[in-house]
């Protein structure tokens, strides 16, 4: 592989070419008017051993859940526990796939719900919400005793990195990520066995596997072409593997040369090879996340970049003998900074309590219930995903995908990365870098050099935009 590796790294040295006209971004939550409702909060209840947050036992509670890959049943079950604990409280749980469209007007009007699962394609921009002081600091929740053990704080029951993810500036914690997501390259072990190949650990091996699949009429890759911000689920840790974690930190920090880094160039050139060699499923740019997952389930493609919610989201079309697996991205070559197994894993399903919620204490109490072992196990059994509760899998018969995800975490060890751009700068990550750069490149309408130049332009614009709250590692 020596000469091939040298040639591949020589690709890094190419100079960037001209960029493409930007695709307009989907409107983010840019106006968060204070609105009415300054004094609309319910009175707090008395703090007791059984009610450590001081929930008003008769106050209504309104919850909004993103109706996506995890569904809503897990939240409804936790809601039932709240109602049992506080029988005089009227609770209301609603769901939608259009979080921003439905809830932004309520934020602007000062009448948001008490607890929101701010997820999905229409996720409200977390950086904007924090910057405009629209969220409740959840430190009180984290310092409260856990549901299971009154001698242990909620924060001490969480997986590493979860608390830090909810912080933007300083110590306040604005977001509680409930799911714990393993991102990577998903595949069917049966499909690889049928081709008599193993999961490729280097990019040359990846191309060889894709070439073998193509001869059998099978595409190497597919992805959510209509939502190409799924591509970074494997692309970002690939960049980090090549050049180290500093590569992603520069992107997160909106640095002037973030997208000019050699590791970024190498990673984009590698992915572009998939398009150039015809290893991407025909029509992929026109597929949404469900359609691409279905094509993958049907054996039309070997690999798909995704998160650990996919096992539940795709279960209706997944064959019983599919044997779903996830792996860390293939490396570039032996010159990579980090070992094979380097993985993106972090909190998912961001739950927030709006600052102007009527019953913020009730919203936090609902989260405290959800972060107990019983609710955590219930979530894992229902949707084949881990929660941010550190545990909750003992005694469970894990499905193949989730079992594989746990194994991938074990293999990664300390080599877990967590790009913050996706929650610090949602519009930049999804629509600008995701759609207008990576999506265009993988559809063959932009070269890697052009994608790098355009991504850097978007990054520079975000850095110079005084209307955006900026964050740094």
Automatic annotation (TrEMBL):
Record bears the keyword Amino-acid biosynthesis: no
Cell compartments where the protein resides: Cell envelope
Segments of skewed composition (Basic and acidic residues): 38-50
Keywords assigned by UniProt, alphabetized: Signal, Transport
Superkingdom as given in the UniProt entry: Bacteria
Pfam family, one: SBP_bac_1
Main location: other
Span list, region Disordered: 34-53, 453-473
PANTHER family: ARABINOSE-BINDING PROTEIN-RELATED, SN-GLYCEROL-3-PHOSPHATE-BINDING PERIPLASMIC PROTEIN UGPB
Family statement: Belongs to the bacterial solute-binding protein 1 family.
This protein's name: Carbohydrate ABC transporter, N-acetylglucosamine/diacetylchitobiose-binding protein
Organism: Streptomyces daqingensis
């Amino acid at each position: 592989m020596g000469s091939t590796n040298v040639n591949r790294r020589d690709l890094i040295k190419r100079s960037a070419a001209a960029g493409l006209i930007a695709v307009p971004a989907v409107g983010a939550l840019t106006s968060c008017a204070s609105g009415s409702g300054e004094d609309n909060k319910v009175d707090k209840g008395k703090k007791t051993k059984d009610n450590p947050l001081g929930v008003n036992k008769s106050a209504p509670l309104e919850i909004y859940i993103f109706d996506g890959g995890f569904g809503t049943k897990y939240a409804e079950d936790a809601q039932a526990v709240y109602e049992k604990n506080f029988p005089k409280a009227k609770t209301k749980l609603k769901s939608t796939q259009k979080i921003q469209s439905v809830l932004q007007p309520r934020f602007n009007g000062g009448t948001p719900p008490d607890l929101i699962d701010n997820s999905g394609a229409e996720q409200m921009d977390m950086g904007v919400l924090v910057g405009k002081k629209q969220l409740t600091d959840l430190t009180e929740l984290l310092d409260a005793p856990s549901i299971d053990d009154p001698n242990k704080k909620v924060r001490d029951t969480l997986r590493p990195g979860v608390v830090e993810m909810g912080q933007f500036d300083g110590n306040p914690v604005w977001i509680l990520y409930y799911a714990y997501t393993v991102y990577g390259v998903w595949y069917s072990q049966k499909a690889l066995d049928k081709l008599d190949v193993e999961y490729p650990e280097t990019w040359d091996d990846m191309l060889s596997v894709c070439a073998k699949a193509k001869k059998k009429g099978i595409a190497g890759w597919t992805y959510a072409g209509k939502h190409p911000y799924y591509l970074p689920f494997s692309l970002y840790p690939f960049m980090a593997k090549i050049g180290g974690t500093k590569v992603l930190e520069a992107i997160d920090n909106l640095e002037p040369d973030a997208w000019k880094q050699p590791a970024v160039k190498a990673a984009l050139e590698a992915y572009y090879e998939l398009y150039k060699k015809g290893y991407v499923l025909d029509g992929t740019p026109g597929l949404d996340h469900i359609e691409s997952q279905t094509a993958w389930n049907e054996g039309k493609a070997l690999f798909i970049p995704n998160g650990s919610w996919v096992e539940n989201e795709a279960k209706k079309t997944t064959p019983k003998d599919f044997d779903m697996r996830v792996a860390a991205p293939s490396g570039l070559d032996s010159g990579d900074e980090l070992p094979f197994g380097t993985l993106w894993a972090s909190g998912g399903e961001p739950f927030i309590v709006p600052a102007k919620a009527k019953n913020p204490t009730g919203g936090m109490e609902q989260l405290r219930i959800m972060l107990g072992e019983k609710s955590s196990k219930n979530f894992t059994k229902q949707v084949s995903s881990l929660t941010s509760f550190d545990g909750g899998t003992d005694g469970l018969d894990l499905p193949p995908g989730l079992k594989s995800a746990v194994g991938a975490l074990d293999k990664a060890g300390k080599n877990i990365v967590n790009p913050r751009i996706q929650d610090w700068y949602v519009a930049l990550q999804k629509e600008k870098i995701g759609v207008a750069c990576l999506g265009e490149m993988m559809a063959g309408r932009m070269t890697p050099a052009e994608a790098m130049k355009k991504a850097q332009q978007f990054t520079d614009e975000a850095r110079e935009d005084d209307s955006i709250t900026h964050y740094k590692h």
